[in-house]
Prior knowledge:
By secondary structure, chain A is an alpha+beta fold. Chain A contains 5 helices and 5 strands; from the N terminus they run αβαβαββααβ.
Amino acid sequence: xxxxxxxxxxxxxxxxxxxxxxxxxxxxxxxxxxxxxxxxxxxxxxxxxxxxxxxxxxxxxxxxxxxxxxxxxxxxxxxxxxxxxxxxxxxxxxxxxxxxxxxxxxxxxxxxxxxxxxxxxxxxxxxxxxxxxxxxxxxxxxxxxxxxxxxx
Amino acid sequence: xxxxxxxxxxxxxxxxxxxxxxxxxxxxxxxxxxxxxxxxxxxxxxxxxxxxxxxxxxxxxxxxxx
Lengths: 152, 66
């Protein structure tokens, strides 16, 4: 069953047609599991829904590509891009290399955030205040921001 | 969430993560997440609730100087 209602998908198509100006790749690390569950094996209850939701999102625009990775099989590659837990979704473009990330299902308001992030990353816009841009230029150290949320 | 992600888009120094607290209970426990949104910057600085962009940036600078 589709997670996105048909009217929501139609609305998204309209929004992306109008505002998404470039290509975006959703780099997604997930659990590609078989039907059998081995006792003690890591499980990822949210992986299936997240993957389906991202696929439905990608289907609403030719500018959006979903790139699937099997976390268990590609753990070294995942570590290289800083992914140590799943489901992980990196919103990337040719100009933006995956520092906009989601861990867990982007549902509720976070789905709206994801849609806006896709537009900004794809279009190369972020609309920050001049003072903010200036402060960011002065950063001498790497910054890792983690925002904890719950589904709303 | 959007402010953190916008900062990551604008600066190669910044990485910003949304973390669904319920799906990552150990991580939520490590950072004592009692209310959401809870924002943790570089292990050193944290706050609860949404902040306007300018104050969010101040927290980032505070974390960098810590």
